[in-house]
Amino acid sequence: MSGANWVVLLLAGIGLMLTNAAIGSWTTGDPPPASVFGQRSAARVVEARVVSATQNGSLRHVPLVLVQWDGQVTELRGLTGSFYDYRNGTAETAIRGIVIGQAVAVRVVEGALYVDRTDWLRLGGAIWLSLFALIAWGAGVVLSLPGRFKRLGRPRS
Fold first, then answer.
1. Are 106 and 44 in contact (CB under 8 A)?
2. Which of 95, 100, 119, 96 lies closest to 109, judged by CA?
3. Measured between alpha carbons, how far is residue 70 from residues 82, 88, 91, 112 in Å?
4. Across the strands, what pairs with 40?
5. CATH architecture of the domain with range 37-117
6. Is 106:69 a contact under the CB 8 Å cutoff?
7. How far apart are CA 84 and CA 74, in angstroms?
8. Between the chain's N and C termini, which has fewer beta carbons within 10 Å?
9. Helix 3-27 vs helix 120-144: angle between axes, to the nearest 10 degrees?
10. pLDDT for 14-60, tens place per residue?
11. The model's pTM
12. How many Cβ atoms sit within 10 Å of the Cβ of residue 122?
Protein backbone atom coordinates (compact mmCIF):
# COMPACT_ATOMS: atom_id res chain seq x y z
CA MET A 1 0.00 0.00 0.00
CA SER A 2 1.40 3.37 -0.97
CA GLY A 3 1.94 6.24 1.45
CA ALA A 4 -1.03 8.19 0.11
CA ASN A 5 -3.40 5.28 0.76
CA TRP A 6 -2.34 5.19 4.41
CA VAL A 7 -3.13 8.88 4.68
CA VAL A 8 -6.61 8.27 3.22
CA LEU A 9 -7.22 5.42 5.67
CA LEU A 10 -5.98 7.56 8.56
CA LEU A 11 -8.26 10.44 7.56
CA ALA A 12 -11.21 8.05 7.18
CA GLY A 13 -10.58 6.69 10.69
CA ILE A 14 -10.28 10.18 12.16
CA GLY A 15 -13.40 11.26 10.27
CA LEU A 16 -15.34 8.25 11.59
CA MET A 17 -14.33 8.95 15.19
CA LEU A 18 -15.14 12.66 14.89
CA THR A 19 -18.50 11.89 13.26
CA ASN A 20 -19.42 9.57 16.12
CA ALA A 21 -18.37 12.21 18.68
CA ALA A 22 -20.26 14.94 16.80
CA ILE A 23 -23.51 12.95 16.73
CA GLY A 24 -23.20 12.25 20.44
CA SER A 25 -22.37 15.84 21.30
CA TRP A 26 -25.53 17.16 19.62
CA THR A 27 -27.80 14.82 21.58
CA THR A 28 -26.31 14.78 25.10
CA GLY A 29 -26.41 17.36 27.84
CA ASP A 30 -29.08 19.20 29.77
CA PRO A 31 -30.24 20.89 27.54
CA PRO A 32 -28.65 19.19 24.52
CA PRO A 33 -27.24 21.53 21.85
CA ALA A 34 -29.90 20.20 19.43
CA SER A 35 -32.50 21.97 21.59
CA VAL A 36 -31.48 25.22 19.89
CA PHE A 37 -33.59 24.01 16.96
CA GLY A 38 -36.44 22.72 19.19
CA GLN A 39 -39.99 24.01 19.22
CA ARG A 40 -40.61 26.91 21.63
CA SER A 41 -43.68 26.83 23.82
CA ALA A 42 -45.06 28.13 27.12
CA ALA A 43 -45.78 26.08 30.24
CA ARG A 44 -47.24 26.97 33.63
CA VAL A 45 -45.22 26.25 36.80
CA VAL A 46 -46.99 23.87 39.19
CA GLU A 47 -44.21 23.23 41.74
CA ALA A 48 -40.66 24.49 42.36
CA ARG A 49 -38.50 23.10 45.15
CA VAL A 50 -35.09 21.68 46.00
CA VAL A 51 -34.85 17.90 46.40
CA SER A 52 -32.10 16.67 48.73
CA ALA A 53 -30.91 13.07 48.78
CA THR A 54 -27.79 11.05 49.54
CA GLN A 55 -26.11 9.50 46.54
CA ASN A 56 -22.79 7.65 46.64
CA GLY A 57 -22.28 8.77 50.23
CA SER A 58 -22.69 12.50 49.62
CA LEU A 59 -25.65 14.80 50.06
CA ARG A 60 -26.87 16.25 46.74
CA HIS A 61 -29.33 19.08 46.22
CA VAL A 62 -31.13 19.20 42.86
CA PRO A 63 -33.73 21.75 41.71
CA LEU A 64 -37.10 20.24 40.76
CA VAL A 65 -39.62 22.25 38.77
CA LEU A 66 -42.87 20.66 37.64
CA VAL A 67 -44.80 22.39 34.85
CA GLN A 68 -48.16 21.85 33.22
CA TRP A 69 -47.86 21.63 29.45
CA ASP A 70 -50.22 20.15 26.90
CA GLY A 71 -52.61 18.97 29.62
CA GLN A 72 -50.08 17.00 31.67
CA VAL A 73 -47.63 17.72 34.49
CA THR A 74 -44.00 17.02 33.66
CA GLU A 75 -40.54 17.87 34.96
CA LEU A 76 -38.72 20.86 33.51
CA ARG A 77 -35.18 19.83 32.60
CA GLY A 78 -32.01 21.80 31.95
CA LEU A 79 -32.13 24.08 34.99
CA THR A 80 -28.44 23.58 35.76
CA GLY A 81 -25.36 24.06 33.61
CA SER A 82 -22.83 21.56 32.30
CA PHE A 83 -20.82 21.53 35.52
CA TYR A 84 -23.29 21.42 38.40
CA ASP A 85 -21.87 21.21 41.95
CA TYR A 86 -24.97 19.84 43.82
CA ARG A 87 -24.77 22.42 46.64
CA ASN A 88 -27.94 23.70 48.28
CA GLY A 89 -27.13 27.32 47.39
CA THR A 90 -26.70 26.44 43.71
CA ALA A 91 -30.01 24.57 43.64
CA GLU A 92 -31.78 27.48 45.37
CA THR A 93 -30.28 29.92 42.85
CA ALA A 94 -31.52 27.78 39.93
CA ILE A 95 -35.15 28.12 41.06
CA ARG A 96 -34.99 31.57 42.67
CA GLY A 97 -36.80 33.42 39.87
CA ILE A 98 -39.44 30.74 39.29
CA VAL A 99 -42.87 31.48 40.79
CA ILE A 100 -45.67 28.92 41.07
CA GLY A 101 -48.44 29.77 38.59
CA GLN A 102 -46.23 31.81 36.27
CA ALA A 103 -45.78 30.96 32.59
CA VAL A 104 -42.24 30.02 31.55
CA ALA A 105 -40.71 29.62 28.10
CA VAL A 106 -39.69 26.04 27.32
CA ARG A 107 -38.12 24.11 24.46
CA VAL A 108 -39.66 20.81 23.41
CA VAL A 109 -37.04 18.24 22.36
CA GLU A 110 -38.20 14.69 21.64
CA GLY A 111 -41.16 15.07 24.01
CA ALA A 112 -39.07 16.41 26.93
CA LEU A 113 -39.35 19.98 28.18
CA TYR A 114 -36.19 22.01 28.67
CA VAL A 115 -35.82 25.49 30.08
CA ASP A 116 -35.29 28.00 27.26
CA ARG A 117 -31.55 28.59 27.64
CA THR A 118 -28.46 27.69 25.65
CA ASP A 119 -25.41 25.88 27.02
CA TRP A 120 -22.82 27.71 24.91
CA LEU A 121 -19.95 25.39 25.89
CA ARG A 122 -21.77 22.29 24.62
CA LEU A 123 -23.09 24.08 21.54
CA GLY A 124 -19.60 25.31 20.62
CA GLY A 125 -18.15 21.83 21.10
CA ALA A 126 -20.84 20.26 18.91
CA ILE A 127 -20.21 22.78 16.13
CA TRP A 128 -16.43 22.32 16.41
CA LEU A 129 -16.67 18.53 16.22
CA SER A 130 -19.08 18.69 13.28
CA LEU A 131 -16.79 21.02 11.31
CA PHE A 132 -13.67 18.95 11.91
CA ALA A 133 -15.49 15.73 10.99
CA LEU A 134 -16.48 17.32 7.67
CA ILE A 135 -12.91 18.54 7.10
CA ALA A 136 -11.45 15.09 7.79
CA TRP A 137 -13.95 13.36 5.49
CA GLY A 138 -13.46 16.02 2.79
CA ALA A 139 -9.68 15.71 2.89
CA GLY A 140 -9.96 11.92 2.70
CA VAL A 141 -12.25 12.13 -0.34
CA VAL A 142 -9.97 14.59 -2.13
CA LEU A 143 -6.89 12.45 -1.48
CA SER A 144 -8.66 9.29 -2.65
CA LEU A 145 -9.52 10.72 -6.07
CA PRO A 146 -7.61 9.07 -8.95
CA GLY A 147 -4.69 11.06 -10.27
CA ARG A 148 -4.61 13.28 -7.20
CA PHE A 149 -0.85 13.85 -7.28
CA LYS A 150 -0.28 13.98 -11.05
CA ARG A 151 -1.37 17.59 -11.30
CA LEU A 152 0.46 18.65 -8.17
CA GLY A 153 4.15 19.30 -7.99
CA ARG A 154 5.10 18.86 -11.65
CA PRO A 155 6.20 22.13 -13.15
CA ARG A 156 5.19 22.70 -16.73
CA SER A 157 8.05 22.94 -19.15
1. no
2. 119
3. 28, 31, 27, 12
4. 107
5. Beta Barrel (2.40)
6. yes
7. 22
8. C
9. 160
10. 888 999 998 988 888 777 888 888 889 999 999 999 999 998 888 98
11. 0.68
12. 21
